[in-house]
Amino acid sequence: MDRIAQLKARRAGIIDKMEAMVAAVPEGDDMTAEQLASFEALKAEDDKVAAELARAEDLERRKAAAARPAAPLPGATPRGAGAPAQPAEKGLTFARAVRTLAAAGGNVYLASQIAEANGDSGLFASQNMGSGPAGGYLVPEDVSAEIIELLRPASVIMSLNPVTVPMPNANLTMNRQATGSSASYIGEQQDVPATDMQFGQVKLSAKKLASLIPISNDLLRASGVAVDRLVRDDIVASIGIRTDLAFLRGAGSDYSPKGLRYQLLGTVYETSHILTMTATPDLAKVTNDLARMELAILNADVPMIRPGWVMAPRTALFLQNLRDGNGNFAFPEMANGMLRNKPFRITTQVPINLGGGTESELYLADFAQVVVGEHMGIEIAMSTEAAYKDAAGNMQAAFSRDETVMRAIVQHDIGMRHLAALAVLTGVTWAPGA
Question: pTM surpassing 0.70?
């Protein structure tokens, strides 16, 4: 497939040169002898590349036609007559495709044969064999939609239901109102005073998030819903955790999103919406700090359509354990996932070692004003020879460990339609026992 892609790219370059030569000749004039000779040379080169391309494509078709159905995966039970029906559980089709592709060593043609032998007829039918990059498999849209749907609740930011928009061209620009206009009462024949409504732009560009997931080949050789769930859940958890880190505290660059923590820096809302925890916290001060965050957003006329809190686990436990003078829990609604009538989420991606090493942060946003752009679906590539670093930073070799390393890629970005819809409390030292 790489050879075919190279030939197509080479031929496109030749044709571009031929078009440029024709465009350079003034209308009504003929090519000079030198130009004509160059043009004929390009034609001959294009004919040669076209012939090579035709042979390469013909060979691929013949290989596909002559391929024998591969043996079923060890332990697999074809879902034919008498076989139990697989549950229609989201993401399992995706996981079966990944596992089958791994068993085929990344060869989509062989994977389709294994799928047929296992009773998964049509599992790879909608895959355009030339659509993925070298060594990659672009999961068909109808299959990737399920796994993307599972990725959203795996990320605390996505679980709070921000606005998600497609970015088919990997970029999206939206207008946002920076400051509002005002109205005035006027008398007869008086001019309406002009007010200045300022607009800004939120620009999203697809940032590539790649995740490596090593999985034992013993599991991949096995078959069954439990294995499919394991493959699916490992990929979902890995991408979800890293997405939260970027969407919350990503510093922002050409290659990574700017997280909510840094969206307000350098704007008119930096001083009013980035607040600091009141020192020596008690119930009154904690309640007041929460109210300050809410007030910052409400004072900007944000409708709070889908508000939500995001915090570190220790912050949540502190608030859950906080009691009033009578020994009653101050926020009993937290047992139902709510804080001051707004849902909250906890994630370890909110650090607790900021400032002097003991501080954390608390976020409040109207997620109806948070925009997440998504490009394409999910791309899978795999290798049995790749090296990777484990959680401890030690280099591991997939071949010697009998593992398959899967690389999942998604592309997305995050921005704010209305910057005032976000408030951040910094310097938070709330913790159980504090």
Answer: no
